[in-house]
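Q: Here's a chain of 216 amino acids. Please give me its 3D structure as tokens.
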Amino acid sequence: MEQIQETSSDADIDPKTNLNRKYTLDNFVVGTNNELAYAASMAVSKNLGKVYNPFFIYGGVGLGKTHLLQGIANKIIKDTPDKRIIYLPAEKMVSELIEGIKNKTIEDVKMRYAQKDVLIVDDIQFLAAKETTQDIFFATFNNLYNRNKQIILSSDRPPKALSAVEERLKSRFEGGMIADIGMPAYETRLAILKMKMKNKPLALPDEILEYIAVNI
């Protein structure tokens, strides 16, 4: 069961950061399957570049990785609005770098990443087999890391299982905190459903929510 993933309106998305305002650490449902990832997310948001850098979250589709990543970013913006944050899916990063190479503006793209205090890349597994992108990302990673800037990544698998990703990158990913998100237990699934219903204009009986939590 996915953590609070819903269709978002344009009003929910911050055009400057590409973040969904609905994704917060406060409305992330914590269970035994994700408590380490959640605790580390809280620690990272309060101690940028000082603990758990890089911070790498992995788990299957729909288990809350994107919610956590964007929740960290939204908390940082709320607590320290002067911090410069960039959040983007790895696919978008690849597209931006390809466009930069094609238009001969690649240095501008690299500079935009390097000027941030927090770099968040979702679904980093999409860098697989893209050699030039990996080269650029490796350089960007080192630049930010050496200046104690926070790097946060997510993937559908742990670093060592990332095929067609250079060993030097996997080594960097493994150099910080790695937290996994597993499948939620029944109680957590039910809690997620009840959290979702708070944002809906209708109420469902508990027996319906329980049925969904048991069967899905």
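Q: Can you summarize the key feature?
A: Residues 135 and 150 are 19 Å apart (CA to CA).
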